[in-house]
Each structure stands twice: as structure tokens, then as C-alpha cells.
Amino acid sequence: SYELTQPPSVSVSPGQTASITCSGDKLGDKYACWYQQKPGQSPVLVIYQDSKRPSGIPERFSGSNSGNTATLTISGTQAMDEADYYCQAWDSSIGWFGGGTKLTVL
Amino acid sequence: EVQLVESGGGLVQPGRSLRLSCAASGFTFDDYAMHWVRQAPGKGLEWVSGISWNSGSIGYADSVKGRFTISRDNAKNSLYLQMNSLRAEDTALYYCAKVDGDYAGGFDYWGQGTLVTVSS
């Protein structure tokens, strides 16, 4: 079994930088992905392979992964970024998600 | 345009079976691994099962191993999930998701989900 731990909630003021962490045993040895999910919608991939952005994802989204912690950083956070964010990684061909972090922009 | 459309959800009694389907279009289906991810009401995401492009690699979460079977038909551009011995804790919205490359990649496209409710 493998576990990914995220803070339940993070708050940020508009225009500021939000950081959401994801912790797991030797997570830095694996690739981490991040998903954004807004109420009533399917998840959207915002970061893959630790730090790559899919086409269409704004540059303000960035990611890093080292040691036991992956981090999603949103620079210049906008109201539209308010959502739940999930980290995800693979361990022995089994997929694991973090519990999710509710990002509030206020 | 990539489209993933799930179907087959519904209300089912505990212990019964259900088969979910996912119809894919807009990409070369047999080039990519596919997965099922579920989300219980008000809860987070849970990976359920995955299958490689040629069905050579298949994986299951411990919570469904031995009860669920994933399969695909590349000729029909379709993904399936046979769910047996259903339990109340299997109640969730089930998403079909495409991987952006190999089996263990990021899920770059998701369907809208099909709701499975297990209740007597």
C-alpha cells in the first residue's frame, strides 16, 4: 500500500502564490501528476511528469517533486483557480491519489 | 476532439453485478492505456483499474481485486469494467480516463462519468 498526503485546505489572496504539497514515501523517485476539479466537473490534468504542463494549461501552474514531497504552485492566483486539487502517482503499477486539497481564493 | 462517454451505471442491489462501458473517439484508441477512476459522493478520487493498449498489462486497486474485471475491445474503441459482488462502498461516479502515453502516465482526458449506486 502507498499513501499520498495533502493538506485538506489552502487559502490564498487573488494575485498571490498558492502552494499545495503532496507527501509520500520516496515520492521524488516517481512521477507526480496534479489534477484540478471544479464542482460538478470532471478532473483536468494540470501537471504531469512532476513539472510539465499539458497544452492549454496556463503558465501560472507549475510543479516540482523532490525527496518525499511534490508541490503544485499557482502564481498570480485567480478566482477561477478555486477548486479541489489532487496529486497522483504510480507505485508498482497501482495508481494512488492524494486526498485532495480545497483551494480557496479570497 | 477526444471524447470518452461512459454508460451502464445505475441502481443495483448489494451482491449483484453491473457492466460499465466507455466509448472512445477522437484518437487512436489502441495506441493508449486506459483506466477507470471513481469518486464516491463528496469524496476524493480513487484509481480503480487500468489496462495497457494491448491488454498485456492490467492492474486493480486492492479494494476491487477479485471482484472487478477490466477489458477492452480495440476494434470497437471501447473500454469495459465488469463489476461483480457489488458492495455499498462501491457507490461512486465512475470515470473512464485516457493516459497520455504508457500505462503509468497522467490521465489527460476524462469522461463525464457514470453513477453507480449500490443499495437495497
Secondary structure: elements and pairs:
The complex is a heterodimer of chains A (106) and B (120).
Chain A: E1 9-12, E2 18-23, E3 32-37, E4 44-47, E5 61-66, E6 69-74, E7 83-91, E8 94-97, E9 101-105
Parallel strand pairs in A: 1-9
Antiparallel strand pairs in A: 2-6, 3-4, 3-7, 5-6, 7-8, 7-9
Chain B: E1 3-7, E2 10-12, E3 18-25, E4 34-39, E5 45-51, E6 58-60, E7 68-73, E8 78-83, E9 92-99, E10 107-110, E11 114-118
What does this protein look like?
The complex is a heterodimer of chains A (106) and B (120). Chain A is mainly β. Chain A is built from no helices and nine strands. In chain A, β5 and β6 (69-74) form a beta hairpin. Chain A is globular and about 40 Å long. Chain B has 120 residues and is an all-beta fold. Chain B is 0% helix and 51% strand. Chain B is built from no helices and eleven strands. Chain B has strands at 3-7, 10-12, 18-25, 34-39, 45-51, 58-60, 68-73, 78-83, 92-99, 107-110, 114-118. In chain B, the strands form two sheets. In chain B, strands 2, 4, 5, 6, 9, 10 and 11 form a seven-stranded mixed sheet that branches. Chain B has a four-stranded antiparallel sheet with strand order 1-3-8-7, with no helix packed on it. The radius of gyration of chain B is 13 Å and the shape is globular. The chains are: A mainly beta (106), B mainly beta (120). The A-B interface holds A 1, 31, 33, 35, 37, 42-45, 48-49, 54, 84, 86, 88, 90, 93-100 and B 35, 37, 44-47, 50, 57, 59, 61-62, 95, 100, 103-108, 110-113.
